[in-house]
Specification:
This protein has about 140 residues and is mainly alpha-helical. It contains seven helices and no strands.
Length: about 140
């Protein structure tokens, strides 16, 4: 599933170099969404945002979901906010270091979350359906 999700996210982000971030983001969403620990139901985007907020990035994630300008985030901030196991898993799947994975995710997350939340809130439904609606 993560490969399909990564492809969809890569397309949403414009393919090419951004597609790499989409693949990493797809693997991360699958990893976090599968845990089901954040009460976000079947939508791993909600679980990811909850995880990032708990990791101290609430103001930045709110800017991505909201209708204003997206605040930038750095790789080290992403690495600090995510569970190490999840970041390590994503990095292994992509064949990169956790630091490289965090840097790519930092580039992809603001744009992806912004595009997946056009109404200023995290929509209900499966992530694949949300991406197809936005593509």
């Amino acid at each position: 599933m993560s490969n399909d999700l990564g492809s969809l996210l890569g397309g949403l982000l414009g393919g090419g170099e951004a597609g790499k971030g989409g693949s990493l983001l797809g693997a991360l969403l699958t990893s976090l969404g599968g845990a089901g620990t954040h009460g976000a139901g079947s939508n791993p985007l909600g679980a990811l945002l909850d995880t990032l907020k708990e990791g101290g990035l609430g103001q930045k994630t709110d800017s991505w979901v909201g209708k204003g300008a997206n605040q930038e985030v750095s790789g080290p901030e992403i690495a600090q906010a995510l569970p190490y196991q999840a970041l390590d898993h994503v990095a292994q799947q992509a064949g990169v270091t956790p630091e490289e994975a965090a840097d790519e995710l930092a580039k992809a997350l603001p744009q992806a979350v912004d595009k997946l939340t056009p109404s200023g809130e995290v929509p209900e439904g499966s992530l694949e359906d949300l991406i197809r609606q936005q593509s």
